[in-house]
Amino acid sequence: MTDSQIIREIKDGNVELYSELMNRYQRRIMAFIYHMLKSAKLESLAEDLCSETFYKAYRSLHTFREIDATFSTWLYTIARNTVLSELRKQKAAYVSIEEVNMEPIISDAATPEQQLLINERMEMVREAINNLPEKQRSAIILREYEQMDYQEIASILGQTVSSVKSLLFRARASVKQQLEAYIEQDRSSDDYERMNQK
Q: What are 161-185's pLDDT values in tens digits?
Protein backbone atom coordinates (compact mmCIF):
# COMPACT_ATOMS: atom_id res chain seq x y z
CA MET A 1 0.00 0.00 0.00
CA THR A 2 1.15 3.54 -0.70
CA ASP A 3 1.24 6.22 2.01
CA SER A 4 -1.84 7.81 0.41
CA GLN A 5 -3.82 4.57 0.53
CA ILE A 6 -2.87 3.98 4.17
CA ILE A 7 -3.85 7.56 5.11
CA ARG A 8 -7.22 7.18 3.35
CA GLU A 9 -7.82 3.93 5.28
CA ILE A 10 -6.88 5.59 8.59
CA LYS A 11 -9.20 8.51 7.87
CA ASP A 12 -11.96 5.94 7.16
CA GLY A 13 -11.46 4.48 10.65
CA ASN A 14 -8.78 1.81 10.20
CA VAL A 15 -6.48 3.49 12.76
CA GLU A 16 -4.37 0.35 13.34
CA LEU A 17 -2.70 1.06 9.99
CA TYR A 18 -0.91 4.06 11.50
CA SER A 19 1.70 1.66 12.88
CA GLU A 20 2.64 0.87 9.25
CA LEU A 21 3.40 4.55 8.60
CA MET A 22 5.47 4.65 11.79
CA ASN A 23 7.45 1.59 10.70
CA ARG A 24 8.20 3.26 7.35
CA TYR A 25 9.49 6.56 8.73
CA GLN A 26 10.55 6.07 12.35
CA ARG A 27 14.27 5.48 11.71
CA ARG A 28 14.62 8.43 9.31
CA ILE A 29 12.73 10.84 11.57
CA MET A 30 14.71 9.63 14.59
CA ALA A 31 18.03 10.24 12.75
CA PHE A 32 16.90 13.71 11.64
CA ILE A 33 15.88 14.69 15.18
CA TYR A 34 19.08 13.23 16.62
CA HIS A 35 21.24 15.35 14.29
CA MET A 36 19.30 18.50 15.12
CA LEU A 37 19.82 17.89 18.85
CA LYS A 38 23.43 16.74 18.71
CA SER A 39 25.46 19.85 19.45
CA ALA A 40 23.04 21.08 22.06
CA LYS A 41 23.94 17.80 23.80
CA LEU A 42 20.26 16.89 23.96
CA GLU A 43 20.46 13.63 21.99
CA SER A 44 18.85 11.83 24.94
CA LEU A 45 15.59 13.60 24.02
CA ALA A 46 15.56 12.23 20.45
CA GLU A 47 13.36 9.22 21.22
CA ASP A 48 10.80 11.29 23.13
CA LEU A 49 10.65 13.94 20.42
CA CYS A 50 10.33 11.26 17.75
CA SER A 51 7.33 9.79 19.62
CA GLU A 52 5.90 13.28 20.04
CA THR A 53 6.28 13.92 16.30
CA PHE A 54 4.31 10.78 15.40
CA TYR A 55 1.68 11.57 18.05
CA LYS A 56 1.23 15.10 16.66
CA ALA A 57 1.07 13.74 13.11
CA TYR A 58 -1.58 11.19 14.13
CA ARG A 59 -3.69 13.83 15.86
CA SER A 60 -3.44 16.15 12.84
CA LEU A 61 -3.80 13.51 10.13
CA HIS A 62 -7.30 14.71 9.29
CA THR A 63 -5.74 18.07 8.23
CA PHE A 64 -3.14 16.46 5.94
CA ARG A 65 -3.77 17.25 2.28
CA GLU A 66 -1.77 15.45 -0.36
CA ILE A 67 -2.05 18.32 -2.80
CA ASP A 68 0.02 20.45 -0.39
CA ALA A 69 2.86 17.99 0.31
CA THR A 70 3.84 14.34 0.49
CA PHE A 71 3.32 12.62 3.83
CA SER A 72 7.09 12.37 4.44
CA THR A 73 7.61 16.09 3.81
CA TRP A 74 4.70 16.91 6.14
CA LEU A 75 6.16 14.60 8.80
CA TYR A 76 9.64 16.18 8.59
CA THR A 77 8.04 19.61 9.01
CA ILE A 78 6.32 18.44 12.21
CA ALA A 79 9.60 16.90 13.44
CA ARG A 80 11.54 20.11 12.79
CA ASN A 81 8.95 22.27 14.55
CA THR A 82 8.86 19.86 17.50
CA VAL A 83 12.65 20.04 17.89
CA LEU A 84 12.75 23.85 17.57
CA SER A 85 10.03 24.15 20.19
CA GLU A 86 11.97 21.90 22.57
CA LEU A 87 15.21 23.82 21.98
CA ARG A 88 13.46 27.07 22.81
CA LYS A 89 12.26 25.45 26.02
CA GLN A 90 15.78 24.27 26.80
CA LYS A 91 17.14 27.74 25.97
CA ALA A 92 19.52 26.07 23.53
CA ALA A 93 19.74 28.83 20.96
CA TYR A 94 21.92 27.03 18.45
CA VAL A 95 21.98 23.59 16.96
CA SER A 96 25.04 22.49 15.08
CA ILE A 97 25.60 19.58 12.78
CA GLU A 98 28.69 17.92 11.47
CA GLU A 99 29.16 18.70 7.79
CA VAL A 100 29.60 15.27 6.27
CA ASN A 101 31.90 16.40 3.48
CA MET A 102 34.11 18.32 5.89
CA GLU A 103 34.72 15.47 8.31
CA PRO A 104 38.19 13.99 7.77
CA ILE A 105 38.60 10.26 8.31
CA ILE A 106 41.11 9.55 11.06
CA SER A 107 43.34 6.70 9.97
CA ASP A 108 44.69 4.16 12.41
CA ALA A 109 48.19 5.21 11.34
CA ALA A 110 47.71 8.81 12.49
CA THR A 111 49.98 9.85 15.33
CA PRO A 112 48.41 11.19 18.56
CA GLU A 113 49.45 14.71 17.46
CA GLN A 114 47.75 14.28 14.07
CA GLN A 115 44.60 12.93 15.71
CA LEU A 116 44.54 15.90 18.06
CA LEU A 117 44.87 18.31 15.13
CA ILE A 118 42.13 16.53 13.16
CA ASN A 119 39.81 16.59 16.18
CA GLU A 120 40.53 20.29 16.63
CA ARG A 121 39.65 21.00 13.00
CA MET A 122 36.42 19.01 13.29
CA GLU A 123 35.48 21.03 16.36
CA MET A 124 36.15 24.27 14.45
CA VAL A 125 33.80 23.11 11.66
CA ARG A 126 31.11 22.24 14.19
CA GLU A 127 31.45 25.65 15.84
CA ALA A 128 31.26 27.41 12.49
CA ILE A 129 28.07 25.56 11.60
CA ASN A 130 26.75 26.26 15.07
CA ASN A 131 26.85 29.98 14.24
CA LEU A 132 24.62 29.58 11.19
CA PRO A 133 21.01 30.79 11.28
CA GLU A 134 18.55 27.98 11.99
CA LYS A 135 17.18 27.70 8.43
CA GLN A 136 20.69 27.28 7.00
CA ARG A 137 21.44 24.55 9.54
CA SER A 138 18.16 22.77 8.84
CA ALA A 139 18.80 22.97 5.09
CA ILE A 140 22.22 21.35 5.48
CA ILE A 141 20.86 18.58 7.71
CA LEU A 142 18.13 17.76 5.20
CA ARG A 143 20.50 17.93 2.25
CA GLU A 144 23.57 16.15 3.69
CA TYR A 145 22.03 13.65 6.09
CA GLU A 146 18.59 13.00 4.67
CA GLN A 147 19.75 13.28 1.03
CA MET A 148 16.63 15.25 0.18
CA ASP A 149 16.19 17.11 -3.05
CA TYR A 150 15.73 20.88 -3.16
CA GLN A 151 11.95 20.65 -3.63
CA GLU A 152 11.44 18.55 -0.48
CA ILE A 153 13.67 20.85 1.58
CA ALA A 154 11.77 23.86 0.23
CA SER A 155 8.46 22.34 1.36
CA ILE A 156 9.74 21.55 4.86
CA LEU A 157 11.32 24.97 5.39
CA GLY A 158 8.47 26.86 3.72
CA GLN A 159 10.84 28.32 1.12
CA THR A 160 11.17 28.32 -2.65
CA VAL A 161 13.69 26.02 -4.34
CA SER A 162 15.88 28.99 -5.27
CA SER A 163 15.79 30.16 -1.64
CA VAL A 164 16.96 26.72 -0.49
CA LYS A 165 19.87 26.80 -2.95
CA SER A 166 20.71 30.26 -1.68
CA LEU A 167 20.52 29.08 1.97
CA LEU A 168 22.91 26.20 1.25
CA PHE A 169 25.29 28.42 -0.69
CA ARG A 170 25.36 31.03 2.08
CA ALA A 171 25.77 28.37 4.77
CA ARG A 172 28.78 26.79 3.07
CA ALA A 173 30.32 30.19 2.29
CA SER A 174 29.87 31.26 5.91
CA VAL A 175 31.50 28.10 7.26
CA LYS A 176 34.41 28.55 4.85
CA GLN A 177 34.83 32.20 5.81
CA GLN A 178 34.77 31.40 9.53
CA LEU A 179 37.42 28.73 9.04
CA GLU A 180 39.73 30.84 6.84
CA ALA A 181 41.53 32.50 9.74
CA TYR A 182 42.15 29.12 11.35
CA ILE A 183 43.38 27.60 8.07
CA GLU A 184 45.73 30.54 7.47
CA GLN A 185 47.10 30.25 10.99
CA ASP A 186 47.55 26.50 10.47
CA ARG A 187 49.48 27.10 7.22
CA SER A 188 51.72 29.67 8.91
CA SER A 189 52.63 27.25 11.70
CA ASP A 190 53.37 24.51 9.09
CA ASP A 191 55.66 26.93 7.20
CA TYR A 192 57.37 27.85 10.46
CA GLU A 193 57.98 24.20 11.30
CA ARG A 194 59.37 23.53 7.81
CA MET A 195 61.74 26.49 8.10
CA ASN A 196 63.03 25.18 11.43
CA GLN A 197 63.62 21.75 9.96
CA LYS A 198 65.98 23.10 7.28
A: 999 999 999 988 887 888 886 766 6
